[in-house]
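[job 4471] stage=fold_predict status=RUNNING
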Amino acid sequence: MTHAVAVTHSNGFSCPGNWSTVQQLCRLYQVSRTTWWRWSKAPGFPAPVRFGRAVRWDAAAVEAFLTQREV
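[job 4471] inference complete, writing structure tokens
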């Protein structure tokens, strides 16, 4: 299950949205981290966004990609 999170940078800039971690997405799609990283190398796969050292994916974009591709 993914959660809507408002991420705040150290400079106070806020990025609202549905940003998910690798762990959350692997659990959602029932795949291993290895499979996740293999998928992430596919052409057209949504790029991760870095918030400092944290890496997140737009859950809606990932779902749209996987639905279109039917992995």
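[job 4471] summary: Residues 59-69 form the longest helix (11 residues).
[job 4471] exit 0
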